[in-house]
């Protein structure tokens, strides 16, 4: 048996010590519980992100299967609208974009670049900086344009301009004047594919048509916007249409109830060969 202090003064100290001990243990327990909750929340967030990524990859596989088998519902997506579906507890939105309807950033000159950047939300001096910097990035000399940038500008970022074509849309983010928001806006109507089939207004969205700025673009743009708004019948794709050798972007966005989100873009090319039906040009 533990002897209790007889003196009132001693009993007071013992009570204080006991309360203090309980407070310490309570504080330790609270820290452990809080840490456990944080770990659980972190783990749940990571799980949701992983689920979203798997769902996006599944969406890519679904779209590829539809293209290879010439599924009418999948081919209809080439009019620019999204197909939405639920898969494995996640929500998936799939969009197919014919690269013929995109502006080839490696095959355009200053006026088209200006209109392209305007469509991406840039105006005035900010647009001039992005325009000249892109031209400097692509040209073969080291002389900066009035609002541009050459190697000396990028030294601190440890970036070396290639003095050649842009290899990916993400590479644009390395160029002076191209913010992440601008790059994201360009993704839907700009391509870097050097050997892409020639631009066709018939498959272009309003932004690409505005950037190209030809006389056919205005009428085609109105028609395409009507299609995208569901105001007229979308483009028809008959069995006679050949997609062999034409690069197509498959864009997938997946979300989960746990707020997981994952975006995936892949540029594929159908080969028409049963044993090797497609080539994956790049995954973004």
Please give a structural write-up.
The chain has 284 residues and is of the alpha+beta class. The chain folds into 2 domains: 1-101 and 239-284, GSPII I/J protein-like (Pantoate--beta-alanine Ligase, Chain: A,domain 2), CATH 3.30.1300; 102-238, EpsJ-like (Ribonucleotide Reductase Protein R1, domain 1, Orthogonal Bundle), CATH 1.10.40. It has 8 helices and 7 strands, in the order ααβββααααβααβββ. It has helices at residues 8-68, 72-76, 110-119, 124-138, 151-154, 180-186, 206-212, 217-228; strands spanning 82-87, 90-98, 103-104, 190-191, 247-255, 261-270, 278-283. The strands form 2 sheets. The chain has a 5-stranded antiparallel β-sheet, with helices on one face. Strands 3-4 form a two-stranded parallel ribbon. It is globular and about 50 Å long.
DSSP strand count:
7
Distance between the termini: 72 Å
Based on Cα principal axes, name the global outline: globular
- The CATH class name of the largest domain reads Alpha Beta
CATH architecture level-2 label of the largest domain: 2-Layer Sandwich
Derived from helix and strand composition plus strand pairing, the structural class reads alpha+beta
Query: Looking across the biggest beta sheet, what order are the strands in?
Result: 1-2-5-6-7
Strand content: 15-25%
- The level of helicity is 40-55%
What's the total helix number?
A: 8
Overall tally of structural domains: 2
* Secondary-structure element string: HHEEEHHHHEHHEEE
Mean pLDDT: 79
pLDDT under 50 segments (min length 5)?
Answer: 231-240
CATH superfamily heading of the largest domain: GSPII I/J protein-like
Largest sheet: 5 strands, antiparallel
Whole-angstrom Rg:
29 Å
CATH topology of the largest domain: Pantoate--beta-alanine Ligase, Chain: A,domain 2
């Amino acid at each position: 048996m533990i002897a209790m202090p007889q003196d009132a003064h001693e009993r007071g100290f013992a009570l204080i010590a006991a309360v203090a001990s309980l407070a310490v243990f309570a504080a330790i327990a609270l820290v452990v519980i809080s840490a456990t909750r944080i770990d659980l929340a972190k783990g749940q967030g990571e799980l949701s992100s992983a689920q979203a990524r798997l769902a996006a990859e599944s969406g890519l596989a679904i779209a590829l299967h539809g293209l290879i088998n010439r599924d009418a519902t999948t081919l209809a997506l080439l009019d620019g609208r999204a197909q939405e579906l639920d898969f494995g507890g996640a929500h998936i939105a799939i969009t197919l974009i014919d690269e013929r309807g995109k502006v080839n950033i490696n095959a355009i000159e200053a006026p088209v670049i200006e209109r392209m950047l305007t469509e991406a939300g840039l105006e005035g001096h900010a647009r001039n900086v992005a325009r000249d910097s892109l031209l400097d990035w692509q040209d073969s000399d080291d002389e900066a344009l009035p609002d541009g940038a050459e190697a000396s500008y990028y030294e601190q970022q440890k970036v070396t301009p290639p003095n050649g074509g842009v290899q990916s849309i993400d590479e644009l983010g390395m160029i002076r004047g191209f913010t992440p928001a601008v790059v994201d806006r360009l993704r839907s109507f700009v391509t870097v594919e050097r050997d892409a089939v020639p631009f066709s207004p018939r498959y272009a969205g309003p932004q690409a048509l505005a950037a190209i700025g030809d006389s056919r673009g205005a009428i085609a743009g109105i028609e395409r916007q009507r299609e995208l708004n569901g105001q007229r019948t979308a483009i028809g794709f008959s069995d006679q249409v050949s997609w062999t050798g034409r690069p197509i972007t498959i864009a997938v966005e997946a979300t989960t109830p746990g707020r997981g989100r994952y975006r995936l873009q892949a540029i594929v090319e159908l080969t028409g060969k049963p044993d090797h039906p497609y080539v994956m040009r790049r995954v973004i």
